[in-house]
């Protein structure tokens, strides 16, 4: 069975030849490790005035930025193929490098929706960015921001469609490229405003929040349609609704505010006769039944460090959701022994793979995830994941 | 409008709560009584969080309201005779990490429970942490981490505290989304949690035991 048939069979809750294995974001350090590349010290370069100007001009140039994004995504696909994944997600993003006196380096990336991404190092010589704060704190600021960025959003949708088309054309004979439409509607509402500020708005300016949700839902559907038109077989959508110990916000409030948006997203994917995998970090037990109600086909990450137990999730949702993930990245895929990884893979397969509907993957990604350990994970999945499961 | 200040905070009525604080200051109410009402409000919020009526978003909003109320009271508190704090805490996000959301929640909740909190901020060098400990002489040191890149500096700081003879004189906590029991062992901490309220409860329980021991 080839990788596509294997993955799509699992998505139908049927048993393929073996449990499929999927990669997530493969960080630059992981890509370098597998492809034998050296890190590029962008952080060091950005701290030198002349180089900073040159780099900023390049990074903010549309022609250069779209090509750099594709090159990075292609390197991730090459890495995933070399490691032996059946599928890997692919994500298109747009950010501008701007002077930012409040940022630790005096500059930061600002994305199209109003987030600040501070620059740092992954400890292996590569640049990383992390969302730290918001750029729009009031209704007036937000209105002005989105009005100014309307042409950027249109361009983003066009660029993302081209990006995903190129990737599927280049790689669909070797690996399933899973198009990721991100960021999610909830994240796009709160992150550009700040979480505390957003919560205040939810309680005190509900009408404005509803307008924001309507705007971001409309954008998301347009973006998603672009991804769907790139011939991907599976689409990944997402919104981080959980944190380590539970939901970020009251589940009933999330349903009231966002439920209709999520239903429309699932309906659009199904109209194209595709499947929708949904990403959410955190402890999300309280949302599992809602995911089914909203129309999602599967859920991904299932963070073990947030208490997400694969057997418990399977018991709660049965085969109404495909389960993807659950291999720990806090210790197991960073410093775990081969035996520990093999045991974790066996445990995951035992808990969720019978009857199909399970895809093995890391529960997330970061720079310290070790490529050798990913390799061990995949080898263990190949060894123990043959159907019928007999562990 | 809610009847009391504590109810206003518990029900997340931001503007009303701050207006009440301002009005009570203007009336000349006892500053410690106002602060106690704010703390009672935070206690109610904590209870609702434990019950599952409130989630992280409500906790954060309440903490923000408390922070603003406390800031309004601070000039008066500085002039007043302050009762002894329940305990002293030094908090930091160590070198390699710039996130502070969890740390800020913990700091606010600890202050709401009458701890004297010294927040060193983010990306803190281990030597800076040790210098602060030598100055403040805290009962607790807390490290907050959202990035794994902070683990080594957390361990380095714990090692420096040991070398300087401070480690056995204080309780070391680590918290944050990426921390686990294995990380606690690696750093050499006494307590680890991913839940801010659990960290605060732990500090209160430890201080209570210490008081009993005296």
Provide structural commentary.
- The complex is a heterodimer of chains A (391) and B (214).
- By secondary structure, chain A is of the alpha/beta class.
- Chain A has helices at residues 3-11, 28-35, 42-46, 49-59, 62-83, 139-171, 185-190, 195-204, 206-228, 251-271, 288-294, 310-317, 332-335, 338-352, 371-384, and strands at residues 22-23, 87-91, 95-99, 107-111, 115-121, 127-134, 176-180, 234-238, 242-243, 246-247, 275-280, 298-301, 322-327, 358-362.
- Chain A is globular.
- The model of chain A has no long low-confidence stretch (mean pLDDT 95).
- Chain B has 2 domains: 5-79, Methionine synthase domain (Methyltransferase, Methionine Synthase (B12-binding Domains), Chain A, domain 1); 88-213, Cobalamin-binding domain (Rossmann fold, 3-Layer(aba) Sandwich), CATH 3.40.50.
- Chain B has helices spanning 5-10, 14-27, 31-51, 56-79, 101-112, 126-136, 151-163, 181-187, 196-213, and strands spanning 88-92, 116-119, 140-144, 171-175, 191-193.
- In chain B, strands 2-1-3-4-5 form a 5-stranded parallel beta sheet, sandwiched between helices.
- The termini of chain B are far apart.
- Chain B is built from 9 helices and 5 strands; from the N terminus they run H-H-H-H-E-H-E-H-E-H-E-H-E-H.
- Classes of the chains: A alpha/beta (391), B alpha/beta (214).
- Chains A and B meet through strand 5, helix 8 and strand 10 of A and helix 4 of B.
